[in-house]
Design a protein that fits this description.
This protein is of the alpha/beta class and 177 residues long. It has a domain at 60-168. It is 49% helix and 19% strand. It has 6 helices and 7 strands; from the N terminus they run ααβαβαββββαβα. The strands form 2 sheets. Strands 1, 2, 3, 4 and 7 form a 5-stranded mixed β-sheet that branches. Strands 5-6 form a two-stranded antiparallel ribbon. Strand 2, helix 4 (101-108) and strand 3 form a beta-alpha-beta unit. Helix 2 packs across helix 3 (74-85) and helix 3 (74-85) runs parallel beside helix 4 (101-108). The protein is globular and about 90 Å long. 24% of the residues are buried.
Length: 177
């Protein structure tokens, strides 16, 4: 009788442990499913990714080929770089002008960017306004590009610092195509 009670108690403890483990696994699976639905697979996220990349780069193709990008809002290009780093586009080809925010994007998404002989980058100080005052600032590029900009005299305020292909190929690989 004592052995039966001990056996029954052991079975109950094991059953509780098993059910607890199943509950945790179930919660983890449900949690991952909700994360995927609301963040990765949700149409709003997919549309935001596509819209941001199109706004910044002008294309959503893979590879995305940039022939003439004048730049724009730094935040938009920062988001586009994050989306590309996360796999939204595997390769971005710079095949011409990539200025301002585009140059910032190309730096931040560098593992997914290659350049052709026609590529060149233009850098300048960033500008923003709160409606009353205008603020001018240096964008923070990767250390190697920051060093090159400093060696050229820093970011210009009213013009562009141009990096042609001959120098740019030290920072980005030349495209195989």
């Amino acid at each position: 009788m004592k052995a039966l009670r001990l056996l029954l108690a052991t079975v109950m403890v094991l059953l509780q442990a098993f059910l607890s483990m199943c509950t945790l696994i179930g919660l983890a699976v449900v949690g991952l499913g909700l994360y995927y639905h609301f963040h990765l697979g949700h149409p709003t996220f997919v549309n935001e990714t596509r819209d941001t990349i199109v706004e910044a780069l002008g294309c959503i193709d893979d590879p995305c080929v940039i022939k003439d990008n004048p730049g724009g809002d730094a935040l938009t290009f920062t988001k586009a770089a994050r989306f590309v780093r996360d796999g939204a586009i595997k390769l971005v080809v710079i095949d011409g002008r990539c200025a301002s925010g585009c140059a910032y994007f190309a730096d931040k998404a560098r593992p997914h960017v290659c350049i052709t002989r026609k590529a060149y980058f233009s850098f300048h100080k960033g500008r923003t306004s709160d409606g009353t005052d205008e603020f001018i600032f240096d964008l923070i590029h990767s250390d190697d590009i920051q060093k090159w900009v400093t060696q050229q005299g820093g970011y210009p305020t009213d013009s562009m610092l141009v990096m042609k292909y001959k120098v740019a190929k030290k920072f980005w690989p030349t495209c195989p195509i």
